[in-house]
Structures are given as structure tokens and as C-alpha cells.
Amino acid sequence: MDGVTFHRRGVFLPDAATLVVADLHVGRGEASNVTLPLGERTDLVDRLGELLAETEPETVVFAGDVLHRFDGATERARDTVDALVDACRGANARPEFVRGNHDTVLDDLRGDVDSTYAIDGGPRTVVCHGHELPDVRADRYVIGHDHPTITIEGQRHPCFLVVPETHRGADVLMLPAFSRLAPGVTVNDARGGDLQSPLVDSLSDARPIVYDADAGSTLRFPSLSEFRRLL
After folding, report:
1. Hey, how many other C-beta atoms are within 10 angstroms of the C-beta on 17?
2. Which residues does 51 contact at the CB level (< 8 Å), separation at least 6?
3. Are 106 and 172 in contact, with CB atoms under 8 Å apart?
4. DSSP calls for the chain
5. How many CA atoms lie within 13 A of 178 on its CB side?
6. 146/153 Cα distance (integer angstroms)
7. CA 51, CA 57: separation in Å to the nearest integer?
8. Could you count the other beta carbons within 10 Å of the beta carbon of residue 77?
9. Of 20-29, 135-144, 181-190, where does the model show the most confidence?
10. Which of 17, 176, 194, 207 is the most exposed place for a label (fewest CB within 10 A)?
11. Whether 84 contacts 48, CB under 8 Å
12. What is the CATH classification number for the domain harbouring 212?
């Protein structure tokens, strides 16, 4: 996909100096027995800091499901969101928040939440969470919501999905969950109906992309229809 660089669970649009991450699910650690060695806040803030250092964006767009719980945000979750905002501002980047289906109380934490965020540098790009159809036209949409993953040699990896001309003739780029605690849809054998996002109704032409953090390189796979024939 032109004009996009892929990083660890996030993408950077150089023409607009914009970093996009999705599905942080802040509070997921509190809501389950699953934990991270460093703790949820440290894990999220440290990894966001790495992306900020790599890309030096002017804007960071959080593309929905910033929060995990539907019924409220604990003080710990609120402090984590504040820490993410502080990380952005410390890197001279402006944070922008897009509302996801989990973000029923995000407006109470942030006064600047919207359903979409438009980027006009290069192809007109609209960032939305992907749980509902956007009312804004674009050349491409950047979404989250389904947390795509791919299994390679028995190992599960977060992946990006590039789906060409799938919504109103526009391309869709689906991001993996930035949270490492959120399970996702394994795309190896998935069909369009296995996804919850209404922007993608077929996965035959979808191309998975995996960022290999150890190698610092991007692995690009053929379309899923071709990929399945190779298995």
C-alpha cells in the first residue's frame, strides 16, 4: 500500500506525518486473569514510545477501542490514557482519538473524540474504528476492530490486512490490536463473514502483512485466496 510504512502493531503515513494505532483496550488487564510481565500501562506506553521514536509523527491517531470496559473506566485506566497522551506530547505529537464500540465513556475522559479522523496528505485517508460504516468518503480507510492475526508454522502473529477496493471502491487497511492482551481473528482460513467490520465483506483479495520486530522488516504475503492454495 503506497504512502504507508508498517511498524510494530501500528502504521505511519509519512505524507501526513501521522502514526495510527488501534485497539489498545486499556483496562483489559484488570478485567481478566491475563497479565503482562511489565504491567499493562508500562507495556502500552513503552511500545508507543518506541513507535514515536521510530516515526517522529506530528499526529498520533488512536483508532478506537482505546478502553476495554463498556460500563466505565477505573482510575487506573484513566491514568493509563493520561500516560499515553503525555507520551505523545512529550514527543511533540498531537493525540487524536477516534471512538470505538468499547469507548462508551471515552468522551468523559477526553473532550476531543470523534467517529472519524480524515487525513488529506496523499490519498484521502479516513481513520475510523471499523465497527460501523463511516459517513465520510475516502480513497482508503484505516480501521481496527477485528484484531487480525495469522498463524505461520504454528506461531500466531498479529498482522495487518490490506483489502483492495472493498468499501465503495476504496481500499481498507485493517490494523492488528495494539494491546497484546486482546485475542484476534486468525485469517488463515477466515472468510468475510468471520469479520465483524461491515467495511470488509470478502477476504479473498485480502493481503496479510506481518511486521517482524526481531528482524525489523516487513513480511508481505499473497492474497488469502492464493495463500490458502499454497498451504
Report:
1. 15
2. 7, 8, 10, 12, 19, 21
3. no
4. -TT-EEETTEEEEGGGTEEEE----BTTTTTSS---TT-HHHHHHHHHHHHHHHH--SEEEEES--B--SS---HHHHHHHHHHHHHHHHTT-EEEEE--TT-TTHHHH-S-EESEEEE-SSS-EEEE-SSS--SS--SEEEE-SS--EEEETTEEEE-EEEEEEEETTEEEEEPPPSSSSS---B-TT--GGG---TT----TT-EEEEEETTTTEEEE---HHHHHHH-
5. 35
6. 22
7. 9
8. 25
9. 135-144
10. 194
11. yes
12. 3.60.21.10
Domain count, the chain: 1
> Dihedral angle at the C-alpha atoms of 126, 91, 38, 82, nearest 10 degrees?
-70
Around 200, how many Cα atoms within 13 Å sit in the side-chain half-sphere?
A: 35
Cα 104 from chain centroid (whole Å): 18
- Report pLDDT digits (tens) over 16-30: 999 999 999 998 866
State the cell numbers at 128. 475510523
- Band (pLDDT 50/70/90 cuts) for residue 207 is very high
Residue-number span of the structural domain to which 151 is assigned: 5-230
Q: Is pLDDT above 90 for 183?
A: no
**146 neighbors 184 (Cβ within 8 angstroms):** yes
Per-residue pLDDT, 171: 96
